[in-house]
Write a structure and sequence with these properties.
Helix content is 57%, strand content 12%. With 290 residues, the chain is an alpha/beta fold.
């Protein structure tokens, strides 16, 4: 479909196809969208980093508070307000000069605080920098940090054809949904056509308690088990139930009769589905309608 720009000259109407202008507008729009997406990724990465180092920051704040208390009790100016005491403690940690007034506590803190700050903040900074700089070549540690920052996400165990179709339907109905995929096969996200901003693939065994904990099923809103073997799905269902008794769990079973034989079927949070049974029901209904 061609876009027409109309130039009015007096009472005569002249149509012009301004292809260059259209291309310029489209390129600007694409650049704007790319810039917006980049800002979102930067903000997401920053929030992930902060969620990973908050313990280090908390320890450093506690350290400053303790140093301020010591300065108030043993420092040169016991009448100083809290803001000044905390500022003096921060200056000592930053190796800035602070008047000691002949008090030994200031000299002691001048040695202890910089070392403690280096150990607390330096450890977190080096750890995050190492993981972030290697996130493209070795994504496991970065992906684990991403998942730790999520809650109310969906955990999909087993990304075969059934899992792929279910995932597409979920994302089509809820595009902002965050998904953690547990599957032993490598490089699944490109195969599934998913972006790393909304999905994380953990290459792991879905029956492993450690893997389920790394996927944070404890804070998930939904768990879907679609492995090709009933025994794997059932074993995983028991373990998910142990980690999060209240999460809805949908379990794929090839043999639908197994559900009635298990105590899991009595749990209101567990739902079984058999693709063959549902496909047969749909086909029969279609045949009868004809």
């Amino acid at each position: 479909m061609q876009l027409l720009f109309f130039l009015y000259n007096e009472n005569i109407k002249h149509p012009f196809l301004l292809r260059n202008d259209i291309d310029i507008l489209l390129s600007k729009q694409i650049k704007f969208q790319e810039g917006t997406g980049s800002m979102k990724r930067v903000w997401r990465d920053l929030s992930i980093i902060l969620s990973a180092v908050w313990i280090n920051l908390l320890l450093f704040i506690i350290l400053l508070v303790i140093a301020a208390l010591l300065l108030q009790r043993f420092g040169p100016d016991p009448q100083a307000n809290w803001a000044q005491l905390v500022l003096d403690a921060f200056n000592l940690a930053s190796m800035e000069r602070v008047e000691s007034g002949g008090r030994g506590i200031v000299v002691i803190l001048a040695f202890i605080l910089p070392l403690a700050m280096f150990l607390i903040l330096g450890e977190g900074t080096l750890r995050i920098f190492s993981i972030y700089s290697q996130r493209n070549s070795d994504r496991k540690e970065w992906d684990l940090m991403v998942v730790k920052s999520w809650k109310e996400h969906v955990v999909l165990c087993g990304a075969g054809e059934m899992g792929h179709q279910l995932l597409q339907q979920l994302l089509a109905s809820q595009p902002a949904l965050k998904v953690v995929i547990l599957d032993p096969r490598p490089a699944l996200l490109p195969e599934l056509g998913l972006d790393a901003s909304s999905a994380v693939h953990l290459q792991a065994d879905m029956t492993s308690i450690d893997s389920l904990q790394q996927a944070r099923v404890s804070s998930a809103r939904l768990v879907v088990l679609t492995a090709g073997e009933d025994t794997i799905n059932l074993e995983t269902a028991y373990k998910v139930l142990h980690l999060n008794p209240d999460v809805p769990i949908w379990v794929r079973l090839h043999h639908s009769g197994l559900a009635d034989m298990l105590d899991l079927s009595k749990n209101a949070h567990i739902h079984f589905f058999c693709p063959y049974q549902q496909a047969a029901r749909s086909i029969v209904q279609h045949i009868l309608q004809e």
